[in-house]
């Protein structure tokens, strides 16, 4: 009598072993694993993998994270003002976009030294990102242009369409923003970072519809104005550094981080009751102690940690009393750029009065450097 049960068990076991020992085919991997593999390859390498299988070919063509830069496109080292270099970059980007068909992009990034003369190509790239419902857009045109007159004008008019509602973050470097009259786009924008950007109109003309903003970072920008009249209740992080702007108005009562590195200027802030930590650096050559406390810190009653960098004049003999006490302040770091006649100490002695408005201060770190005024 044949033991059929034993035979079946043996066949099943052998079949299982055969399946478990065989190599996976590339098209059998889950899509998220394929995308993870692609993230470690240059676009040239990704394109070359299209010969592996039809599934792999479709995967790279629908890859949701497009990053166009010198490294990912496998271009040679940077050659300043080299037309062939720019032409090759544009050609490779166009070739990839022609075959790419992701229903929705996670990120679209262009990082290459282009300028106003490449407007048609750059407009097509940004239009592709908007049409592909990209969540994050990065445009970094470093090291071009050499002057803002040659800078590319970012096509904000493309962001008034329905697809722009999918954009959550924008980072722009070395471009011009010239918002059209009545611009009311980017309604779901949560994060904006501008570096070396010229904004022709008030920043409010760009962000008037951005009620969901959580993060604003501005550095080395030229701003015609900064008057954000609407209440940005979702804004938690704000940074402004070395920007040319005459005044600033910001209504964001729920800020939890505040970084200010500017010359003295008129500033309007709502009371920031949730703010626990701030960094303030005033860069004008005059005495900044009164300005820092009366204009900026007066809106921050619940600070626990403060980093403060300012100028102080030795000859100054008085200090206007701070409009409020900082009873929650525990840590204070001060960098003082001190200038004036060495024999005068009244300006520096004002720091003693500072302890009166922070009665529960536990740690104070003080750095003092001698400075010579280059301007008044």
Automatic annotation (TrEMBL):
SMART domains, A to Z: FBOX
Superkingdom in the source lineage: Eukaryota
Pfam families reported in the protein's UniProt record: F-box (PF00646), LRR_At1g61320_AtMIF1 (PF23622)
Domain named F-box: residues: 23-71
Cross-referenced PANTHER family: OS01G0553400 PROTEIN, OS02G0105600 PROTEIN
Protein name: F-box domain-containing protein
Organism, as annotated: Urochloa decumbens
